[in-house]
Fold:
Amino acid sequence: MAYQPTVEQGAILAHVINRNARVLAGPGTGKSATLVALMDRLLGGDPEPRIKLLTFTRAATAELAKKVSDHPAAATQRPSTIHSFSISVLLQIRARAISSSVKDCG
Structure:
């Protein structure tokens, strides 16, 4: 069955892409399906935006990854928890700092 957005979901899909937005909705209201539809729209644009999918729990990350993997355009995006993403950023910064200090010494 094809995704048919509600009026509220349609407003999310029509949101101006260069502005931040927040979606507040309960479980089972179609947030993930709307996210995938929005990603399909955004990833078809030029220039292609940088998108990061973050969740609070590993269970939510696994569920979102499954939903995203069913859609070719969105499947390139790998969801992660906020904590996992934050740690990866810190490790990247640390690696750059170490690399920079090694170059300075050499």
Q: What stands out?
A: The first helix runs from residue 7 to 13. The chain has a mean pLDDT of 85. The helical segments are 7-13, 31-43, 58-69, 82-105.
